[in-house]
Amino acid sequence: MSKRRSLATIGLAVIGVVTVAACGAAIVAVAVAPTMPGTLQPSRSAESVEVTEQEFVDERTVDVELVRDPGISLSVPLTGRITRFGCRPGASIASGGSFVSVDGRPLLTLATSMPLWRDLSIGDEGDDVKALQTELARLGYAVTADGDFGSASLAAVKALFTSIGDAAFDEPGLPVSRVMWAPTTTTVISTCIGSLGSSVSSGDALGTVQGIVSSAGITNLPSDLLSGARVLEVDGQVTSVNDDGTVTDPGALDLLSGMRGTTGAARDDGDGGAEQEPNQLAATFVLQTPVLVAALPPSSIYGVEGSEGCVRGDAVGVPVRIVGSQLGQSFVLFEGHVPKRVDVVPTGVPACR
């Protein structure tokens, strides 16, 4: 074999080894190439969404204007020295409680439809007795408002005085000198006149409270409300309201009269008096009975005119009414047929009206 042929043979052998090595490397590279997890693969946008309904109360924030009667004086019913005085402008006093004591005896705050004007004892009858019994029953005592002051009424009175700190109360009835009348079950104090340690005579004024709310109404009633009976939610309390936004129910007016957080509550001016503010409070105006709405992406609604629009569901155009929006969703009411799914971005949109 010649030297030239030997070199050629060696060259071919080297080329073969390199080729095989290269192919092996390629095979190894293919074998170890990582596969992208399914969760990291680019996702395809959903073409439709399922229609699910939820409750909707059409919540609106409104202002309620209160019309109050003139303020009422708090008169002490007996003579002596003030030994406890919890009067603070802007604070609330509740019927069935006590915020002042004279000569160590707590005075009972009572809100009755008729102010008590005489001492009551077993056998007394009248409208004042019935007014007392009505309030005792509201406070949770087992009393029938029949206008006849009997043993059940007396037992309730004794229990009530025990609850305000006078366990020694053992009167044969209810002395009017132990009662401070209040106009509403919860009353906001406007001014305080008395002071701890001062001497008072029967009939002296200890302060004044806000007058009773005689009427109330929403000042900024929305014009695009869903139809249906509504209620007002104020400071955690719910009260009735008329369709036109006015409040006329006596119980509702009584509740508003003593509502804490009203801008009409008196504000201490630093001299024991108070500076009166406008009688207005913030409230939430909601449907009494929720309605069912669907939450859809805004892109699914087309042909919008005012609050009316369309969606494409079950391959047909479906009319909807837009009633609200929140967090990138539109709340709609279906006008008739409720599809199972609607297109997120409808194409070839069909007419729906």
TrEMBL record:
Domain Peptidoglycan binding-like intervals: 126-159
A Pfam family per the record: PG_binding_1
Protein name: Putative peptidoglycan binding protein
Organism of provenance: Compostimonas suwonensis
